[in-house]
C-alpha cells in the first residue's frame, strides 16, 4: 500500500546523490593506483629515487594547492561546472600519464590528475550542503565510505590488471570513474535553468554576483581571520599528518621490531581498512551532537594508546595497537561534516572547505618528512613517536575550538 503524504527526503535529488557518491569514489584513485605497481613503473620509465620520492609528495601538495584554488574557481564559474571540469581534468591526467615515455611528463600529468581530485575534495562538502542540507550526516557518511573504497580498490586490483594487461592499461582504466563522475553533474546543469543562465552569463562576460552576499574577495579574507577556520584546519591537518606518517612508516616501525615484511604489510592494510567504520558512523553522530568534542577526545586517546603500544611493546598486542591507530583517523569524516555544520551559507561552506583543506593538507605533508628525519637522526623511533604524540595533543586542543557550536559567518558580520 502506498502511504500518501509520507515525506520523501531523497525524491528529486537522486542524480545529485549519484554524482556526490561517484565523485567520492574518484577522489583517491590517482593516489592509490600507482603505489602497488611503482616498481614496474620505475623500471619502465627509468624513474630515479628522487623522482619516486617526488611522486610520493605530489598528492598532498596537489591537494593543498589546488584545494586552495577551488573556491576562487567556484565563485567564478559555479560549484557544478567547476566540479565537472575537475573530474575531466582528473580523468585526462590519468589517461595521458599512462601513455607518456619520460619521467618528467609522468610527474606533470600526475599533478594534473591530482589537481582535479584536490578541487573535488573542496567542492564536495558545499555540494552536500546545497542539495542535502537536511541530510548532511547521512550523505557525508555515504561519500566518506565511497572515498574509502577509492583508496582500497586500486590496492586490490592494480597488480592483477597490470599483470594481465600492463601497467599503462591499469592506470588508464581508472580514468573511467572520473569521466562517469562528471556525467550526473552535466545532467544537473542541463536540468537547471538557473545554472544554464549563470553559465551563459559567464560566456558573455557578465557574471552576476549573488544578491545580498558580501564580495568574494572580502569573504575570502575573512576566513583567514576566523578562529573556527584555523582550528578546523589544525584538527584536519594534524589528524592527516598522523595518517600519512603511519602509511609511510608503520611497516618500517614494525619491521625494526622484528615483524616480517609480509606481516607488516598486512598490518598496514588493516590500518587502512579500519577507516571504513568511522566513515559510516561519525558523520551521523556529529550531526546529532551540539558539540562533538567528545569524539575528538576518543580519537586522540586512540592515537596516544596506539603509539604508546608501538613504542613499549610493538610485538605484543600488535592487533590492539593497529586497531587503535586505525580507528583514530575518524577525525577526518568529522571535520568534513563540520565544514557544513559550522556554516550558514554556500559561500561560507566553499570558503571554509577551501581554507581548511588547503592549510590542512599542507600541514599533513610534514608528517612523513619529520618522522623520517627524526628516525634517521636518532637511529630509533622514540623521538619520532614523541613528535607524533605532541601533534595529537595539539589536535585535541584544536578540536576543543573547532567543535564549539558557532558559525563561521557570525564572525563576518
Q: What's the CATH architecture of the largest domain? A: Up-down Bundle
Could you list the spans in which at least 5 consecutive residues all have pLDDT below 50? 1-8, 206-220
CATH-defined superfamily of the largest domain: MFS general substrate transporter like domains
Number of helices: 20
Distance between the termini: 51 Å
The portion of residues forming beta strands comes to under 5%
Stated plainly, the CATH topology of the largest domain is called: Growth Hormone, Chain: A
Number of strands: 0
Give the CA-based shape.
Answer: globular
Determine the mean pLDDT: 87
- Helical fraction equals over 70%
The first-level CATH class of the largest domain is given as Mainly Alpha
Instruction: Tell me the series of helices and strands, N- to C-terminal.
Output: HHHHHHHHHHHHHHHHHHHH
Structural class: mainly alpha
Cα-atom radius of gyration: 21 Å
Pfam families: MFS_1
Keywords: Membrane, Transmembrane, Transmembrane helix
Main location: membrane
Organism: Pengzhenrongella sicca
Description:
The protein is mainly α and 413 residues long. The protein folds into two domains: 11-208, Up-down Bundle (Growth Hormone, Chain: A); 216-413, MFS general substrate transporter like domains (Growth Hormone, Chain: A). Helix content is 79%, strand content 0%. It is built from 20 helices and no strands. Helix 4 packs parallel to helix 6 (103-131), helix 12 runs antiparallel to helix 17 (331-341) and helix 19 (366-378) packs antiparallel against helix 20 (382-402). It is globular. The model is unreliable at 1-8 and 206-220 (pLDDT under 50).
Amino acid at each position: 500500500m502506498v502511504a500518501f503524504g509520507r515525506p520523501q527526503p531523497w525524491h528529486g535529488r537522486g542524480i545529485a546523490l549519484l554524482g556526490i557518491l561517484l565523485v567520492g569514489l574518484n577522489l583517491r584513485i590517482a593516489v592509490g593506483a600507482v603505489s602497488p605497481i611503482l616498481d614496474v613503473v620505475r623500471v619502465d620509465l627509468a624513474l630515479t629515487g628522487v623522482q619516486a620520492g617526488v611522486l610520493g609528495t605530489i598528492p598532498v601538495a596537489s591537494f593543498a594547492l589546488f584545494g586552495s584554488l577551488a573556491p576562487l574557481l567556484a565563485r567564478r564559474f559555479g560549484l557544478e561546472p567547476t566540479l565537472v571540469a575537475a573530474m575531466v581534468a582528473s580523468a585526462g591526467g590519468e589517461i595521458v600519464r599512462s601513455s607518456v615515455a619520460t619521467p618528467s611528463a609522468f610527474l606533470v600529468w600526475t599533478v594534473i590528475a591530482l589537481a582535479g581530485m584536490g578541487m573535488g575534495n573542496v567542492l564536495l562538502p558545499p555540494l552536500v550542503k546545497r542539495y542535502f542540507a537536511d541530510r548532511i550526516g547521512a550523505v557525508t557518511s555515504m561519500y566518506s565510505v565511497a572515498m574509502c573504497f577509492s583508496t582500497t580498490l586500486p590496492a586490490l586490483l592494480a597488480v592483477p590488471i597490470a599483470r594481465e594487461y600492463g601497467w599503462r592499461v591499469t592506470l588508464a582504466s581508472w580514468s573511467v570513474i572520473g569521466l562517469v563522475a562528471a556525467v550526473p553533474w552535466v545532467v544537473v546543469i542541463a536540468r537547471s535553468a538557473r545554472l544554464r543562465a549563470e553559465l551563459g552569463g559567464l560566456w558573455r562576460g557578465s557574471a552576476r554576483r549573488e544578491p545580498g552576499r558580501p564580495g568574494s574577495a572580502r569573504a575570502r579574507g575573512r576566513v583567514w581571520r576566523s578562529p573556527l577556520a584555523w582550528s578546523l584546519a589544525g584538527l584536519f591537518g594534524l589528524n592527516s599528518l598522523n595518517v600519512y606518517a603511519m602509511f609511510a612508516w608503520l611497516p618500517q616501525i614494525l619491521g625494526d621490531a622484528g615483524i616480517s615484511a609480509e606481516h607488516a604489510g598486512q598490518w598496514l592494510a588493516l590500518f587502512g581498512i579500519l577507516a571504513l567504520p568511522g566513515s559510516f558512523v561519525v558523520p551521523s553522530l556529529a550531526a546529532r551532537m551540539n558539540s562533538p568534542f567528545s569524539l575528538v577526545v576518543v580519537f586522540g586517546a586512540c592515537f596516544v594508546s596506539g603509539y604508546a603500544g608501538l613504542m613499549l611493546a610493538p610485538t605484543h598486542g600488535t592487533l590492539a595497537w593497529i586497531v587503535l591507530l586505525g580507528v583514530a583517523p575518524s577525525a577526518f569524516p568529522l571535520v568534513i561534516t563540520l565544514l557544513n555544520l559550522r556554516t550558514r551559507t554556500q559561500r561560507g561552506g566553499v570558503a571554509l572547505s577551501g581554507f581548511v583543506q588547503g592549510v590542512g593538507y599542507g600541514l599533513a605533508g610534514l608528517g612523513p618528512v619529520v618522522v623520517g628525519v627524526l628516525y634517521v637522526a636518532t637511529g630509533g623511533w622514540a623521538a619520532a613517536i614523541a613528535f607524533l604524540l605532541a601533534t595529537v595533543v595539539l589536535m585535541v586542543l584544536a578540536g576543543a575550538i573547532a567543535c564549539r557550536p558557532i558559525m563561521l559567518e557570525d564572525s563576518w558580520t
